[in-house]
Amino acid sequence: MGRILIVDDTLFMRTLLKNILFSGGHTIVGEAENGEEAIAKYQELKPDLVTMDVVMPKMNGIDALKNIRAADPNAKVVMCTAVGQEQMVKLAVKSGAKGYIVKPFQAPKVLEEVKNVLGA
Amino acid sequence: MSDMEEYRGLFVTESRENLDTISQALLTLEECEDRETIDEIFRSAHTIKGASASMGYLKLEKICHSMEDVFDLIRNEKLKVSAPLTDLFLACTDQIDDILDIIEDGGDDSGCSIDDLVSSLESWAHGEEGGDATSTGDKTGDDSAEEASAEDVPSQTGPGDTYVVGIDLAPECSMKDVRAMIVLSNLEEIGRIVSTKPSREEIESGKIEAHFEVTVQSEAGVDALRAASSGTEIASVTVTVGNESPRPAPKPRQKVEEAPPKSDHHDRPREIKNIRVDIHLLDQMMNLVEDLVINRGRLKQIAQKNQIKEFDEALNMVGRSVADLQNLMMHIRMIPLDHIFNRLPRVVRDVAQHDHKDVEFIIEGGDTELDRSVMDGLNDPLLHLIRNAVDHGVESPEERKAAGKSEKGLVRLSARRDRDNVVIRIEDDGAGVNYDKVRQKAVSRGLYTAEEAATLTDDQVIEVLFNPGFSTADTITDISGRGVGLDVVRSAIEALKGSIKVESVRGKGTCFELVLPPTMAIVEVMMIRINGKRCAIPISNVVEVAMLKNDGVHRVGNSRVILLRDEVLPLYTLDDMFGTSRSGEVLVVLQYRSKKCGIVADVVEGQQEVVVKPLSALVGSCPGVGGVTIPGDGEVVPVLDVNTIV
Fold this sequence. Notes:
The complex is a heterodimer of chains A (120) and B (646). Chain A is of the alpha/beta class.
């Protein structure tokens, strides 16, 4: 299964996501709290997939996504989003996001999306 | 939601942090409306919302969502921040705080009523939005979306066959447009999209049902197209070979460098370099360290008794580590006063608004550190004193004008380190204590006769203020209560082994000064022996030590008193605690508040810092003893509670 980098500014969401992904047999190779950290961690860890929150301090998820995709055009990034953020997600998809998961997270959906994106 | 139980604590802690950020930012916003602060509130509300939804706290989610909506308008400059709006937001933060309390105690938010707040928020959100049907978020999103998409559209026609891909989205798919866009973007990687049905613009603006079709030109073949189109929430994919001749790309669009919303500002750094530790764990650890100190003392004695030099040396090394550990533990338990200071601007604001006063509130020295246990006990007294300063201290703008002062009152809260103590001052530039009024009140309450009251010095008048239930306020307000307070404040401060002092100049203002020990766990004591037994007295209660001369001791009724420099002090021997002291020749004078007394001791052994442990429930309450300490030699020594002795 995949090596995954989790990006979210809250410990709560990271923990939740970590447990879901872990239960799906994935390896969590790292966590980042903001966009800047995400870019640095991506370079360092070269994960198979990144789950990226949209609203974060320092650098938001869209900018981080753009940066990561600029450095690695094959980067697989799944956006974590909430209902009401469709526009942001669309922007993310145009910037190269490979998928999205909707908060509140439902474990089967999260795992399915991650599997599909990893398999694509 | 039982599987969410394990996240409850984390959820509450983190949401509280965000809530604090919101309340603080709201107050900042009243001063000046800057984008970073607005973004910060938006982000924090958003975070709480997301976490609440995950935990299944729907009402909490709803209220945060409504706040977010209104702040989105503010962020897009469609709505101005005003005082009533800030009030509404603060009311919301209060409500959220309450809900978090309930959740922390194991409940959920289903019993909470949030409808009023939500409908108020909604009326703000809609009232200002006007005819603009779609929210501003949609607009900016659309603009940037179109521009950004230009990058994805290849400008030249590519080789390969043309296929028509029909895709059915799963009914449960929550963002059909986004899902469709992902499919388009995946198809684009292996081919060139000739056209879509509905059109790409319609898909991107959300006008899409469960089914859509893409005409794509690709060399990759049917299977690759099918694979690229399938994915999460895709119910079915059909790929047919199309006959359409290749057409030029739908329409060329100009390419614009688009900065997404809120990217060009620098967020306030919010790096967290700390870990969260349950305070009970720290307390336990502290206890263990203390035990270690005691046992080291015992080991040392054994080493000395048996004259094992090697053992002694090794023990010295251990001793150093233990001392370092103890210091470190002390340091870890210290937290900056900002923790409780940060809530006070809100209090000042609320009280000032309630009283129609204009008050400037200055905080200084919030970085001064205090032990957590002291901090806990300080919150309420401080809150009370601050309310007092605004409510009773600062006058109304009219009175201030009449007195020739600026209409804006000033309340200053400052903290600083003074040698081993922390000094906190609460100053206001209000009317000050009306000494004559206090005297009158004291007489009318029967505390003093009119003659006595007239001779009271100013300091004694201040002392009257600390009488239980004493208030000079003519009207009882629901804010500062009924003057039930200063006596409670004083007891609270004294329980922390601190002291409180008041200075007041009529017409100029009042200043409360709190002197607190940085920690409660370690107390400086004087070690004395009574009847050969050791006991410790907190040094703050010791006034002086003198030789006991028998000719100074007099009997008054059943009790003995001693005349010391023209002062008559009751003399206690503490026989019932330690047995009669045969060689009692030292007089130790103790003081609690203004009361003094003398006790007889054999000898004063010296001063030292000790860790005072409370008496366990097994021993029960033991009048006169405030706790026990175990100095290095392992002996258990009682620490006198001077309050009950006096």
